[in-house]
Write a structure and sequence with these properties.
alpha+beta, seven-stranded antiparallel β-sheet, two-stranded antiparallel ribbon, about 40% helix, globular, Beta-lactam_cat, hydrolase activity, Beta-lactam/transpept-like, Serine hydrolase
Length: about 325
């Protein structure tokens, strides 16, 4: 084994040891009925208690995730899906401001409207929007899809029932749920839906080329940090708190997972990132530990409603 490979293996093992304790908190939530796993059935997806989804192994106590939840100063929602088995889990039903994770939604809407046929200028703007989280490019493309009405129309076609576009050009004030973001990820990384194969491949490509300084978030749940993602962060200046979100595709314990984490209320961006990463890692561990692997296609998870989040200044949206 090469030195580099030994280093990567050791790093993976350290991350798993650090996350084992977080499982205790997640599984405790399952025991109270707050955290639900969903598995495929003939009639679609049905919620079942996480502990009953399959026999989960005993884990060592550790307050790592509990400390992140208590000390992060924010509230959260998370949804995770195993693309092979279709098993999924969700925690939290509130709506959150999207900040820049909406940029995946905007590009999906543009591809849907154009049937995947983008001009060179649109492709340049799309790359800036997704890879670099460029706001000017986003504002341009948001206008091209018809603004809030265009995004709402696209989301209706996508089956995003808990997402409402920000008005008056304030695309970063779009509100959404974790489960809607999971549906959006299924549209991008699945094989069904209103987008064509080339459109999905294009979205996947851009999400795999995120700028190096933005490759945090759900990447904490990926064994090798080779991840497709989009993050969003937004200072809520009126309230002195931060929105920090992350969505994407990871490979965890050899299984492809789609993960969406939404948070707000953290005192700093750094605290928000730490919270998102802790929750993403714990969610991935929980799902792979509590459910068997399989080789079936995923199904869409059910809709969840929640209270709308309050707006922020458009000039700060990221």
């Amino acid at each position: 084994m090469t030195s580099a490979r030994r280093t990567r293996t050791a790093a993976r093992r350290r991350r798993r040891r650090q996350r084992r304790g977080a499982l205790l908190v997640v599984l405790a939530l399952a025991a109270t009925g707050v955290w639900l796993h969903r598995e495929r059935s003939a009639g679609g997806t049905v919620p079942v208690a996480a502990a009953a989804a399959s026999a989960a192994p005993t884990v060592d106590p550790d307050a790592q995730l509990a400390a992140a939840l208590q000390d992060g100063g924010g509230h959260l929602a998370v949804a995770v899906l195993d693309t092979a088995s279709g098993a999924s889990a969700a925690y939290g039903t509130d709506r959150f401001v999207t900040a820049s994770i909406v940029k995946v939604d905007i590009l999906a809407a543009l591809l849907w409207r154009t049937d995947g046929m983008l001009t060179d200028d649109q492709r340049s703007a799309a790359a800036l929007m997704v890879e670099n989280s460029d706001n000017d490019a986003t504002t341009d493309l948001f206008g091209q899809i018809g603004g809030d009405e265009g995004l709402d129309a696209a989301n209706a076609a996508f089956g995003l029932t808990g997402t409402t576009a920000g008005t008056d050009g304030y695309w970063g004030l779009t509100t959404t749920t974790a489960e809607d973001q999971l549906r959006l990820l299924q549209l991008v990384f699945g094989t069904e839906g209103v987008l064509g194969d080339e459109s999905r491949a294009y979205l996947q490509k851009l999400m795999g080329l995120i700028a190096a300084d933005q490759r945090w978030g759900v990447s904490a749940a990926d064994d090798d940090r080779a991840v497709h993602l989009k993050n969003g962060w937004l200072p809520r200046t009126a309230e002195g708190a931060w929105v920090v979100n992350s969505i994407g595709r990871v490979v965890h314990d050899g299984r492809e997972l789609l993960v969406a984490v939404l948070t707000d209320g953290s005192d700093t961006k750094e605290e928000g990132i730490a919270l998102v990463e802790s929750v993403a890692a714990a969610a991935a561990d929980s799902l792979t530990s509590a459910t068997p692997s399989a080789t079936v296609s995923p199904t869409a998870s059910p809709a969840v409603s929640g209270a709308a989040a309050s707006p922020v200044a458009a000039s700060t949206q990221q």
